[in-house]
Amino acid sequence: MSKVEIQASNIKCGGCVSSIQDGLKELDGISAVSVDIESNKVSVEGSNLESKVIEKKLAELGYPIEE
């Protein structure tokens, strides 16, 4: 099991957290998702995690990566 942390943007409320968690759990290999509203940090745990796939899904959900 591995863990990936990604800095996203536009995370403002509990609804955003739920949307991110539900959306990312649809991806293969993801077992847990936690979101910190204060820091806009998304932590993902699972197997065979690919940051680019996670980042693409976050952007599709409306939470693009902060650059």
Written overview of the protein:
This protein has helices at 14-24, 51-61, and strands at 2-7, 30-36, 41-46. With 67 residues, the protein is α+β, with helices and mostly antiparallel strands. It has one domain (2-61): Alpha-Beta Plaits. The longest helix has 11 residues, at 14-24. The protein is globular. The model has no long low-confidence stretch (mean pLDDT 95).
Please identify the top-level CATH class: Alpha Beta
What's the total number of strands?
3
Percent in helix: 25-40%
Report mean pLDDT, rounded to a whole number: 95
Tags for this model:
67 residues, globular, Alpha-Beta Plaits, alpha+beta, 2 helices, 33% helix, three-stranded antiparallel beta sheet
Protein topology:
Blueprint lengths: L1 E6 L6 H11 L5 E7 L4 E6 L4 H11 L6
Summarize the structure.
The protein has helices at about 15-25, 50-60, and strands spanning about 1-5, 30-35, 40-45. By secondary structure, it is α+β, with helices and mostly antiparallel strands.
